[in-house]
C-alpha cells in the first residue's frame, strides 16, 4: 500500500503513461457493451429531447451601423474662428454599448409595440400581433384590452398589458448584440413562430430608435435653426423697409447747400448698411446651422435586412442527438476510468 502511494506521488514517466493507456484500452475493449448501452440510451434520450424541444421559430436579423467619427479638420478650423458646424454624434449617445442598450430600454420597445402597421390589408397595432402569445391574455381582466398608438387614449389595463408585452419581448424574442467590439456594427434580431411578425417588429424597433435620435439628439440643433430662421425673416423685413426709406430720401429734391435736410437721408443709409451687415451674418449662421443638422441626421443606417425564407432559431433535433451520444461516451469513459483507479 505504501509502495502504491509512493508510485502515485512520484513524477509520471513515459512508461507509466503507456502502461496506464494500455490498461485503459483493455478496460474499454472488455467493457464495450457498456459503451453501446450508454450511447444507445443517451442517444435515444437526446433524440427524444430534440423532437420535443426543437424550435420552429424564425429569426429576423438586421445589421445596422452607427457613425462614430470625431471632429474633422474643417470643423476644428471653424471652431478656431468661433464657428460650430456640429458633430455627427454629440454626447456619444449612440456610441459603443450605449447603442445596444438603447434598443432594450422599455420606452423604445413599447414605442415599437404601439406602432401601427398594415398586415393582411388591415391596419393594426403591432402589440395586437403578439398579445395572444401571452398566457395573461386569457385572464378575464384583459378580455377587453385595446391597444392604441396614442398612450393618452389607453387606460391602466392597457398600460399593464403593454408592460407585460415589453417583458415578454425583451426576454423571449429580442436579441441585440455587438459581435465585434472594434466595429460599430450592431445586430438586432427578433425570433417568433411567424416570420412576418418577427420582421415587422424588428423593423419597427429600428425605425423608432432612429426617430428617437431625431427627436432628442437633433432637438437643440433644430431649436437653434428655428430661432435663426425667425431672426433672418425679421431682419429681412427691416432691410426691406430701410431700402424703401433710403430710396424715398434719395428721390427728394434737397438743396445741396442745406446740410440739415440730408440728416434723414444719411441716417437711412447708415441704418441700411447696418441692416445689410447683420443680415449677412445671420445668413452665414443659418447655413452653418443647416450643415450642423444635416451632419447629425441620419445616424443609424441599415446595412443588411432579412430575406425570406428566414433561418430557424435554436438547436435542431440532430444537435440534441449528438449531445446525447457525447454524454453517453463521457459517462462510459468515466465509469471505466473510475474502475481502473479503484483497482490501482
Summarize the structure.
The protein has 344 residues and is of the alpha+beta class. 60% of the residues lie in helices and 10% in strands. Helix 2 packs across helix 12 (317-343).
How would you describe the overall organization of this protein?
- The chain has 344 residues and is α+β, with helices and mostly antiparallel strands.
- It folds into three domains: 32-55 and 314-329; 58-218 and 299-312, Bacterial polysaccharide co-polymerase-like, CATH 3.30.1890; 221-296.
- Helix content is 60%, strand content 10%.
- It contains twelve helices and seven strands.
- The strands form two sheets. Strands 1, 4, 5, 6 and 7 form a five-stranded antiparallel sheet that branches.
- β2 (116-119) and β3 (122-125) form a beta hairpin.
- The termini are close together.
- The relative contact order is 0.17.
- The model is unreliable at 1-7, 70-74 and 76-83 (pLDDT under 50).
Amino acid at each position: 500500500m505504501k509502495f502504491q502511494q509512493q508510485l502515485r506521488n512520484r513524477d509520471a514517466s513515459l512508461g507509466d503513461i503507456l502502461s496506464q493507456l494500455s490498461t485503459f484500452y483493455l478496460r474499454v475493449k472488455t467493457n464495450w457493451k457498456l459503451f453501446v448501452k450508454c450511447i444507445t440510451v443517451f442517444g435515444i434520450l437526446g433524440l427524444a429531447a430534440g423532437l420535443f424541444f426543437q424550435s420552429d421559430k424564425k429569426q429576423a436579423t438586421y445589421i445596422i451601423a452607427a457613425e462614430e467619427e470625431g471632429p474633422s479638420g474643417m470643423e476644428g478650423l471653424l471652431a478656431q474662428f468661433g464657428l460650430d458646424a456640429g458633430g455627427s454624434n454629440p454626447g456619444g449617445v449612440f456610441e459603443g454599448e450605449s447603442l445596444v442598450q438603447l434598443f432594450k430600454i422599455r420606452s423604445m420597445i413599447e414605442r415599437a409595440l404601439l406602432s401601427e402597421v398594415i398586415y393582411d390589408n388591415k391596419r393594426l397595432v403591432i402589440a395586437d400581433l403578439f398579445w395572444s402569445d401571452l398566457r395573461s391574455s386569457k385572464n378575464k381582466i384583459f378580455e377587453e384590452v385595446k391597444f392604441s398608438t396614442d398612450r393618452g387614449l389607453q387606460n391602466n389595463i392597457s398600460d399593464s398589458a403593454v408592460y407585460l408585452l415589453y417583458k415578454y419581448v425583451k426576454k423571449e424574442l429580442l436579441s441585440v448584440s455587438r459581435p465585434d467590439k472594434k466595429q460599430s456594427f450592431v445586430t438586432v434580431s427578433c425570433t417568433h413562430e411567424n416570420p412576418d411578425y418577427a420582421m415587422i417588429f424588428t423593423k419597427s424597433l429600428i425605425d423608432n430608435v432612429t426617430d428617437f435620435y431625431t427627436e432628442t439628439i437633433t432637438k437643440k440643433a433644430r431649436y437653434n435653426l428655428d430661432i435663426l430662421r425667425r431672426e433672418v425673416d425679421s431682419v429681412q423685413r427691416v432691410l426691406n423697409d430701410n431700402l424703401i426709406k433710403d430710396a424715398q430720401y434719395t428721390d427728394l429734391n434737397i438743396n445741396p447747400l442745406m446740410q440739415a435736410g440730408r440728416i434723414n437721408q444719411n441716417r437711412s443709409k447708415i441704418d441700411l448698411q447696418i441692416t445689410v451687415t447683420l443680415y449677412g451674418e445671420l445668413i452665414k449662421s443659418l447655413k452653418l446651422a443647416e450643415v450642423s443638422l444635416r451632419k447629425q441626421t441620419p445616424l443609424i443606417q441599415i446595412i443588411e435586412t432579412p430575406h425570406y425564407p428566414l433561418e430557424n432559431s435554436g438547436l435542431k433535433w440532430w444537435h440534441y442527438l449528438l449531445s446525447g451520444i457525447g454524454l453517453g461516451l463521457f459517462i462510459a469513459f468515466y465509469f471505466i476510468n473510475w474502475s481502473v483507479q479503484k483497482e490501482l
